[in-house]
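Hi team,

Below is the intake form for Peptidase inhibitor I78 family protein from Serratia silvae. Please confirm the fields before the structure is written into the shared record.

FORM ID: S-0412
PROTEIN: Peptidase inhibitor I78 family protein
ORGANISM: Serratia silvae
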Amino acid sequence: MKFYGKTMMLAALLALTACSSSQEQANSQSAEAEDDTCGAVQYQNYVGKPLSALDGVNIPQQVRTIPYNSAVTMDFNLKRLNFLGDSEDKIIRVYCG
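The structure came back. Fields below:
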């Protein structure tokens, strides 16, 4: 009887763990959607491309390109789209802020 009790307890624990991880995943997806006030998700295909790939691209909202090791203001604007470059002048991150 003890073996079956432990087995049932383990099964219940695994079921609860599965529920909690899907809940966390749903919460993180909704948080990302809420944080995407500038539409950064639709520009993620630029990651890995050079910053010069943005030349001539018509983006309707406020945009900031940030080359590697450059000085930028610390103001936080959720409607501004940021393209962050690395030392090789490639885009490594697209985000709002």
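SUMMARY LINE: The CA atoms of residues 23 and 95 lie 24 Å apart.

Thanks, M.
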